User: Which sequence fits this backbone?
């Protein structure tokens, strides 16, 4: 088992190393831009699955934390060194996640989904109100000396860190507690598991990664406003990608990110006025055809012959 785990970890590490060298070996603006999109969605989907995968809580707060990271850079990007800006974004994201988690993670099911969706709209309206009434300007310009290649490598580092964090959590007592919570939260409480503390901790870790992705991505746009960085479509895209690949597996979300990033780019370029409708259709098709994700379907497909052989024996 240990050998198997180490082998998988080595393969993932080798793939990440190849991705790090790819923009240098095969230079090109389009390839680099596409790679940034892949890494953005890959990190967001992996972070989303850190919390929603084991607990089965469907969160639509991805956009809220992404926007918080982007606006932190817009406000502090020219006042502080880049590492300090990221540290402030991390602290703000963690603080908001703690407050939200402590006040809402007693909810479950559709109530939690609606709250997280409303959270994004609430933060967007608060930022819009502040910009209109205090700064008298709805948007902000971001002029940071940061190349596309630097953004690519930072996103790749975040993805590697998110995968490592997920790998460690799955092998910890926290990971076991979250799996029990996902199966039956009432049983988890009867077993003595502090379900609120476990959920809040993981919700905060997941949200911090989302906040940092927003911070790293913001210099790419030069100009941001609340409608851009608090676009609710992002939450649904990340959700669909995670469900397609399989939120219950560490690498499952990445299996959904790769094909859907290409599909969403095609749809947004060819059908910009109907993108939201097509996004909804994609969501329905995925939920109907592969409710547990592609990775789970493939795993069962490989296991089925072995079980049949064992039964026959």
Assistant:
């Amino acid at each position: 088992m240990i050998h198997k785990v180490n082998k998988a970890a080595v393969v993932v590490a080798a793939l990440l190393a190849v991705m790090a060298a790819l923009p240098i070996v095969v230079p090109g603006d389009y390839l680099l831009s596409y790679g940034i999109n892949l890494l953005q969605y890959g990190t967001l989907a992996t972070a989303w699955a850190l919390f929603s995968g084991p607990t089965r809580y469907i969160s639509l707060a991805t956009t809220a934390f992404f926007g918080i990271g982007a606006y932190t850079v817009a406000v502090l990007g020219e006042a502080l060194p880049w590492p300090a800006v990221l540290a402030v974004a991390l602290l703000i994201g963690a603080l908001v996640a703690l407050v939200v988690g402590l006040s809402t993670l007693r909810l479950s099911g559709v109530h939690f989904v609606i709250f997280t969706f409303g959270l994004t709209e609430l933060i967007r309206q608060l930022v819009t109100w502040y910009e209109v009434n205090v700064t008298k300007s709805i948007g902000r310009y971001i002029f940071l000396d940061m190349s596309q290649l630097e953004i690519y490598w930072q996103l790749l580092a975040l993805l590697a860190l998110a995968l490592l964090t997920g790998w460690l959590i799955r092998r910890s007592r926290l990971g076991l507690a979250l799996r029990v919570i996902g199966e039956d939260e009432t049983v988890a409480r009867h077993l003595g598991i502090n379900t609120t503390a476990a959920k809040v901790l993981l919700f905060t870790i997941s949200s911090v990664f989302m906040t940092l992705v927003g911070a790293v991505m913001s210099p790419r746009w030069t100009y941001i406003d609340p409608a851009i960085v608090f676009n609710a479509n992002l939450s649904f895209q990340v959700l669909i990608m995670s469900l397609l690949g399989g939120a219950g597996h560490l690498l499952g979300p990445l299996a959904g990110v790769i094909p859907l990033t290409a599909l969403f780019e095609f749809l947004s370029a060819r059908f910009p006025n109907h993108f939201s409708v097509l996004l909804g259709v994609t969501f329905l098709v995925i939920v109907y055809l592969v409710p547990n994700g592609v990775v789970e379907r493939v795993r069962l497909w490989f296991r089925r012959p072995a079980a049949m052989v064992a039964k026959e024996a």
